[in-house]
Amino acid sequence: MKIGVVTFPGSLDDRDAARAVRAVGAEAVSLWHGDADLRGVDAVVLPGGFSYGDYLRCGAIARFAPVMDALVPAAQGGLPVIGICNGFQVLCESHLLPGALIRNDHRKFNCVDQRLVVENNQTAWTSGFEPGQEITIVLKNGEGGFVADETTLDRLEGEGRVVFRYAGDNPNGSYRAIAGVTNERGNIVGLMPHPEHCIEEGYGPSTDGLTFFTSVLKAMASA
Amino acid sequence: MTALDPSTSATHHLDTVTQAAQTPEVEQPWAELGLKPDEYANIREIVGRRPTSAELAMYSVMWSEHCSYKSSKVHFALWGENTTDQMREKLLVGIGENAGVVDIGDGWAVTFKVESHNHPSYVEPYQGAATGVGGIVRDIMSMGARPIAVMDPLRFGNLNHPDTQRILPGVVAGVGGYGNCLGLPNIGGEVVFDDCYQGNPLVNALCVGAMRVEDIHLAKASGVGNKVVLFGAKTGGDGIGGVSVLASETFDEGGPTKRPAVQVGDPFAEKVLIECCLDLYAAGVVDGIQDLGGAGLSCATSELASNGDGGMRVELDRVPLRDASLRPEEILMSESQERMMAVVEPGKLAEFMAITDRWDVEATVLGEVTDGDHLVITWHGEVIVDVPPRSVAHEGPTYHRPLDRPAYLDALQDNGTGSLGRPVDGDGLKSDLLTLLASPNLCDKSWVTDQYDRYVLGNTALAMPDDAGVVRVDEETGRGVAVSTDCNGRFAKLDPYTGAQLALAESYRNVATAGATPLAVTDCLNFGSPEDPGVMWQFREAVKGVAEGCKALGIPVTGGNVSFYNQTGDVAIHPTPVIGVLGVMDDVARRTPSGWKKPGQVVYLLGTTRDELDGGEWAHVLHGHLGGRPPAVDLAAEQLLGEILVNASRDGLVDAAHDLSDGGLAIALAESTMRYGVGARIWLDAVCERDGIDAFTALFSESTARAVVAVPRSEEVRFTDMCTARGQVHARIGVVDDQTDGLDVQGQFAVSLEAMRESHTGTLPAVFGR
Predict the structure, then answer these.
(1) What's the CATH number for B6-12+225-370?
(2) What's the confidence (pLDDT) of residue B259?
């Protein structure tokens, strides 16, 4: 099983994502932003960071990277893709996922051990969770406020496409406390928290992040 | 006249070496550039004529206090005199390079250094703090290492002063904005408030990097014909300080004159530069490397040449510019960020350029290493600098500034805390504890630290609020390092020699508390004006204290930084020698956290408590008092305690450990309780009886060489046997108990978890908002 990890200039958590891929026994394949080539991978991680410095708008420039020319149609065709933090922002800018991420309502970068409720365990990346399960995942960003218009929010809720919701106090002003969403097909998931930082005992607040990667292995095996 | 064509206008005004030789009488603005009459005369003697304006600019900035250490370097002999062969064993690169490097075993080398960015951060908090992080990270990169963590010791004026509310949020956002975007975990540091920093906050930045021993790189230009390559960001007019004097004198009316003296950072450019440099190192195409920081190209060219064979020729007009109107003097001085200079063999240049291209990093060959012994810089073919590089980089002036023990010191030291009113019952002790927990220096700092990414890179095993930051270096074995920075400026004010050793002792203890064996020291010596004999005496005492302390502990100083002129008018800050200690662990998974988790763990107090409240937090917070003598230093006791803590960690004898320092035992117990919300029953009678003290002293004294540990019941006998065998003073003072809400100090008071947390967490949000 090969899982690609994209490196844009300014990507920060690409090495962590590759470590998480290896932790579940899959092969991590490095994908370069400048190459429109997915190198035959079975799934893709768009990692966290500040692609192209997040100048202009988070994810707005990364959307036009050559690698996205290959990734967008593949994702539309069902390739499992997860966008973490900056990767989520890139997915929204690419219109693979609805909504947008804006500056946190308190206008500060915020790094916390965040509790989340799993709302949807029917996606390629969450099948190993129980519905309603509470997990702890690192949240760290300056622009993590999920926003969308009311119609879109109602549709997301109605179709069960809200994958994660923040438990406890809303950490960034996200509408309806939404932490992560998926597409209609459930193969593309975007979330602000960082599962790749929660895969090893002693190096993060939990190991709940492993389930994301074991889930996608199962999805890839049954695909 | 605005848009000048650079080549013609510059040539028109160009002060060449030929012209300088022909016009010895020209008046030069050396005084405005901060040079003294004898320094200017010395420059004329070195170059054998009057300097060109470009040479004058280079000398003025390289001979500044910041770059030349002219007031401090006579005291640096103390480092060498106090470094034994045993201390040199693990030292791969010592003082004088961009950063020191130590051997941590298994073929790994670690480099670390702390630097100041105090004055820029006061003028422009965000950019000052941001570029402070950027600068220290480039120092670490230029040793050949991948940066793996940062820490920021920060000191501000009174929390409730309006100017603190201007500076602190900007500094914190700048540290976070830059460091987070670089992808470096921020794993610790300090946030301290004291009125003495009101007009002069201290923004220090530390970076740690790791590499294989064989990958160490040095800043030297050797090998005739090797290319000198500038790469990274374009050069702009930012960060030009005194040189604007030259610019405004030589420019025509209407041209750009005074340029902003604070640099502007672009962390994205630096992140790309890090990855690009690491690829360049891996490809083996870099012969010598130097970052561009203070004094920009002046520093990089003269230091590279001076450390090498001496000869270098640079075509300054090749430097890519953001602002085409920059004068050659300004280009030499510009402190534009995110730039590096490499020395590359001609045969490897194509591969070098292919790697910089891949990262979209602009790289330009400026010149080459020559067989002469002069640094020659040209501007469109005309020679504007022709100097021996050592005279610029390493042979600046040396001052033997007068020293004088301040007259106020006797009265200050005689005014101890003995006369201050102390709480007389349990209610009073509880009230003082809650007041201290809410006080600016002891309160919860997560308003600050939550703005830093502590998880990126996935190797962070411990970070704030624990005693030290711990990161894994080797993913296979878990080998890693622990780092802490500490300083109590009030102690140093009362007695700078002892205060500096207390900073060293605390940092050493913090690293050991986390379970790591202390290995090396870096220091950032923040002081007032060296022209004040009292300050210079403080400085000498502090350096002596650190050097002799390091010798006693057997760990070398590997590098650091001196920051003078931290004062407002005639009033200097407290002497603030910030000490960073780095320790090594075979496997960081075994690091010791500070919080209690499991009911039934037995709480032991290690070390002896004396009545030592002078200069401590209790006197500062409850009485606004500073006087007396700081706690006694006992470095042999620190070493023993360190060994006990490290062995206990390695053998699994402790589940948690917390260093005792600011606020004493009371604060350590409260913090260990609040960390995971698990309470404890505590009894002090045995300690009071053994040490001849009362409960107040037991709780709030700041005696050194102490720690509290939580021992699993199953290991209690082994632990106490080890302490007894080694002669470590220890006392059983309590038990972790989830049935106790907070702390129950038997016979004195009980305080709930909620009461402690409410006091502890409310302070910073009340001032700065959510």
Answers:
(1) 3.90.650.10
(2) 54
